[in-house]
Amino acid sequence: MYLYLIRHGIAIDSDPVALNSMANDELRPLTKIGRKKIEQVADRLGKLELTFDLMITSPLVRARQTADILIDKQISPKLEVSQNLKPMGKIESWLIEWNARSTDSSVSTIALVGHEPNLSEWAELWIFGQVYHHLILKKGGIIGLKFSDHRMELGTAQLSCLVPPKIFIQKVG
């Protein structure tokens, strides 16, 4: 089982004077440059023939737009939304959700599209069993993990890749 953690692209800045900053954060879309960079990441993944059987995204606008770009570029045939991938989501809740369906052997490569610090912390939990705050996932970056089975237990993953977006993209501006 392979799991790829993908951070959303560059989004517009949050409005610090908004009445409801949480709602404001959930609605922030990708910038034009953010969209372009994610398109370049998707194009590069396509050239590398790296595809996902399933992509699961945070429901926040910037993550959903990132996932939609990857879907449009045919990086995955199937997209689902998980509330557990919102910022400050808990890995334990996501694992309960996943393990309830982990008998699906047709899914061997999945991608989670989400946010920091969740994704890098989750990667460390899957690799080391605890968080060290050493992995940093840039916007549009990817962490790849390999598991021996579908259950994805903490402390059982091998790091297969940590790719910053600059590896995938050309200068946009």
Which SSEs are present, and which pair or pack?
Blueprint: E1 2-7, H1 21-26, H2 32-47, E2 54-57, H3 61-72, E3 79-81, H4 91-99, E4 109-114, H5 118-128, E5 142-146, E6 158-163
Helix pairs in contact: 2-3
Proportion of helical residues: 25-40%
Strand order of the largest sheet: 3-2-4-1-5-6
CATH topology type: Rossmann fold
Radius of gyration: 15 Å
The pLDDT mean sits at: 91
Sheet-strand content, in percent, reads 15-25%
Per CATH, the superfamily is: Phosphoglycerate mutase-like
What is the string of SSEs from the N terminus onward? EHHEHEHEHEE
Number of domain modules = 1
Low-confidence stretches: none
CATH class: Alpha Beta
Termini gap: 37 Å
CATH architecture: 3-Layer(aba) Sandwich
Structural class label: alpha/beta
* Overall strand count: 6
Largest sheet: 6 strands, mixed
Number of helices: 5
Q: Tell the overall outline.
A: globular
Q: Would you mind describing this structure in some detail?
A:
It is a single chain. With 173 residues, the protein is α/β, with parallel strands linked by helices. It has a single domain (2-167), classed as Phosphoglycerate mutase-like (Rossmann fold, 3-Layer(aba) Sandwich). It is built from five helices and six strands. The protein has helices at residues 21-26, 32-47, 61-72, 91-99, 118-128, and strands at 2-7, 54-57, 79-81, 109-114, 142-146, 158-163. Strands 3-2-4-1-5-6 form a six-stranded mixed beta sheet, with helices on both faces. β2 (54-57), α3 (61-72) and β3 form a beta-alpha-beta unit. α2 (32-47) packs parallel to α3. It is globular and about 40 Å long.
